[in-house]
Amino acid sequence: MKEPIGNLSGLKSSQINALERLYRRRVPPAEFCTQELAARLIELSSDIRRQVAILINRQGIVEYVVVGDEKGVVIPELRDYPLGRRTLRGLRLIHTHLRGEQITEDDLTDLSLLRLDLLATLLILPGREQIMAQLAWLSPAPSGQSAITDPIIPFDRVDLDFHHFVTELEAELERASQSTAQAGNALERAILISVTVEGTRQEAEDSIAELRELARTARIEALDEFIQRPRSLNPRYVMGEGKMRDVVIRALQRGATMLIFDQELNPAQIRSISAMTELKVIDRSQLILDIFGRRAKSLDGKVQVELAQLKYLLPRLTGRGVQMSRLMGGIGGRGPGETKLETDRRRIRDRIASLERDLQELSRGREQRRRQRVKAGIPIISIVGYTNAGKSTLLNALTQSEVFTEDLLFATLDTSTRRLRFPREREVIITDTVGFIRSLPKSLLGAFKATLEEMRDADLLLHVVDASNPRFEAQVSQVERILEELELGDKRQLLVFNKSDLLTGLRKSDMLAFLRVRHYARSRGAIMLSARDRKSLTPLVDELQRLFWPEETAPLTD
Ligand SMILES: Nc1nc2c(ncn2[C@@H]2O[C@H](COP(=O)(O)OP(=O)(O)OP(=O)(O)O)[C@@H](O)[C@H]2O)c(=O)[nH]1
Ligand SMILES: [Mg+2]
Description:
Blueprint: E1 5-6, H1 13-20, H2 35-48, E2 52-57, E3 62-67, E4 91-96, H3 105-114, E5 118-124, E6 131-138, E7 147-149, E8 153-154, H4 162-180, E9 188-195, H5 201-217, E10 220-228, H6 241-253, E11 258-261, H7 267-276, E12 280-283, H8 284-295, H9 299-313, H10 321-328, H11 338-342, H12 345-376, E13 380-385, H13 391-399, E14 416-421, E15 427-432, H14 442-445, H15 449-457, E16 460-466, H16 472-485, E17 493-498, H17 503-509, H18 511-523, E18 527-528, H19 538-548
Parallel strand pairs: 1-3, 4-5, 9-10, 9-11, 11-12, 13-15, 13-16, 16-17, 17-18
Antiparallel strand pairs: 2-3, 2-4, 5-6, 6-7, 6-8, 14-15
This protein binds guanosine-5'-triphosphate and magnesium ion (MG).
């Protein structure tokens, strides 16, 4: 037999038994609550001077009996009724108000956050005997008020065919959330959130624009964006609790399945936000990890990504099971895997240790191959740059090969190495590397280990920039900063401004922006080219030849 939940202290056992018997009640499908049940709730509630709440499922079975205090009642975690992708919980909440008060803001917050089928309060107005009721339900209108509240009326005048009502409401809510979400192959629908106390609004916007790109790469549809720039960060919710709640309600209204934060959340923040909602809560790092997880093809890449994922998750595994599973569930229910999820921290540590051994093994193999190359005395060039700059395309164009390229972030995770032949039997080795991105957490840098090793060996770093990206300056500095961090700042570098074909359009649409790019490129001695146009590569090839074989003055023949 189920027991009542909540504030039972000081209650007589007869009172507890009476509350417990509420679990035996049944409500017919057409009614939201029977007259007798309503009367009983009022009676029990005034006897114990506390609010009493019941949650009834669609079969009319009482699933939870909850006791509050005089002013309110705390709804427990509805573990057996996860929301998942449904728009409504499948539970209605009926509770008593002791002082004849109207439905409160807290009641409406419960309704919105829990996505209840219906919220009803039962009350007796002062000096009256009759049981009164007030009903509220979620509004299907995609914007504006999230709930609709009826006036208080006598219980016996409530005219509601519950089954019909809830079916219609659910269909309407479903339609409303679908109309905001585009049909497509998106795995998830997300609300993007940036909360920052540093930098300008423009910087926050640029960063969230990039987060949108990351989301697109992970096949997540971004439904909406919130940028908050509070004076100080809230330690529990990053933004203020009330604001966080508004965002969550908004997200549920729009049919979102997850919240993505542009800033890294600490474990405590992920926990408190997850306690507020069943939406998945992830941050930029986790999103990047997820993309890496999908994109890693080689054994080496896979091992490194799993390692980075586990290292990221380990300190975050202090929560209860549910939160843990949500954290590790990943996007579209993937991630390091549901089975690993139940394993405890100990097993994760073991796994980390074993992956690290694998990695060492793999790294030894790489080391050997590299040593051979160095011994052969062939110059090595590493192509580096921001993600999506066109690094792989340039490698392909230079070496006439077919490395995978795509207009998504992190198309390349595994390094590929090609030979570029020059006249007179000269050649260099060119390696393609994973793209950089801002706010790349340290734990993720480890995942680039193979790439990094390649870069250490390089005689020259070819820094490729997407000249058509409005944020190219910031991207150049990001890449330079990461290279500094990797202690590669002193390596010889050549700046290449790629996608020059797109600048013709820019010149027409935004002359000033065009001049800015050109000025910047010239002042930095960059080579302009388009990796899509092989003819435009000649200045680069000439320059490489000049750099590696300066004594030769023979003109390039190609
Ligand atoms: N218009 C134009 N598009 C280009 C040019 N070079 C590359 N692209 C496109 O830019 C996108 C990204 O190219 P990739 O070569 O995959 O970029 P990457 O730097 O290797 O990206 P990651 O591997 O994701 O870091 C692709 O859609 C390319 O077709 C260019 O010169 N002009
Ligand atoms: Mg690439």
